[in-house]
Each structure stands twice: as C-alpha cells, then as structure tokens.
Amino acid sequence: MDPGKHKAVVLLSGGLDSATVLAMAMERGFDCHCISFDYGQRHKTELDAADRVAGALGAAGHVTVPVGLDRLGGSALTADIDVPKDRDEARMGDDIPVTYVPARNTVFLALALAYAETVGAQDIFVGANAIDYSGYPDCRPDYLDAFEKVANLATKAGAEGSHFTLHAPLIHMSKADIVTEGTRLGVDYGITRSCYDPTPDGAACGRCDSCILRKSGFKAAGVSDPTRYHD
Length: 231
Description:
The protein is of the alpha/beta class. The chain contains 7 helices and 5 strands; from the N terminus they run E-H-E-H-E-H-E-H-H-E-H-H.
C-alpha cells in the first residue's frame, strides 16, 4: 500500500462488472480495499473468483463478510426458487425478476460504508449498471445518488466534515463497453464468475440472465469469451 494514495473501498463480487470496476479504481490511483459478501447465495463460486481477482489486480486488501440473507429468502439466489433461463435479452429490464435479492445493494453498501470508515476511505466503488442489467431497482442512478446522501448524513466521518463519494463508473456503459474497457485495463475475465446457477463443478449454465448478458457483451465487443459454459 502506498501511503501517498487515497484509499477506496470496492464492492467485489467476483463477476465481470466488479472486476472491471476494481481495475478502473486502481487506474485512477486508489489503494483499493475490496469487500465481498457471503450472503447464502447459490453461486458461491463467485467468492473464490473475488479472491482471485483481488490478488491478480493487486488490491491493497480483501475481506469477505458473512451476511445471512438466505435466512430471509425471497430470491432465486438465496432460496429454493428456480433461476429463470433463456429470457429475451431485449426484455430483461421490463420487470424485476426473481433473482432480485430484497434490499441486497442497500445492505452491501451499508457494510461497505462501515468498512470505508474503518480503513479511512472516502470513496466507494460499486459495479451497478443501468443499461445491460436485469431490472434491479437498486442499480438505478437515483438510488445511488440517494445512498451517497445517506452516507454523508449517517456517519461519524460525515458529521465531522469528511465527504463520501459513491462511484458507479459502469452506470451508463453497455456490457460490450465494459468488456472493452476491462480488456484495455488487462482484466483476466477467465478468472471471473457471473453465473447465477453454476453446475457443481463450477461451469456457467449459459442460460441465466447473467450468462446471457455476459455472452452478448463479449460478442458485441469482439472479444473472445473465456467463460467455461456447461453447454
């Protein structure tokens, strides 16, 4: 860690988007402290991927925090509910699918904010995207703006004059743009995991919303997709 650099907390899921965000934050000169969440998700392979990504990109630190959202259920990612497959990509943003985890980003950002106060960071990076996404309400720009206001009202650091900034550099980027940018930054997408319903040996299903968007992004960017798909 370079004592001359500013610190940032980066939410790192182990997927394509968050790996790209970490690389972008590091290019901007931040010492990046990554935070991941074991929230009872069925796709726990992403946690191993997060470890690999943090190490490969040279993050200053990486913690994984247990959060028992599976105790609440309500989502195909945390309960015994089938993950939707083969949905029309053009209509993915028309509704909120059952892969939405109730209040997940609010919980995650609150914990990232606590971590930022702990390590002395004023910048938080998140991989939210409002273009190629599955209709999640907690990925919208208005929500992120509102949370930044909460961060500065609800913390000791904010009350004492520090200002937290919530960065969402992918918010208006297509999945192809994200792949292109990450490739420029040297992200090894082969070590990332995005699938909502991987096989027991870790292969991506190729049919969930996340897989469909990922495949489409690589294709549109003209970049070879290194993902190991079940099909």
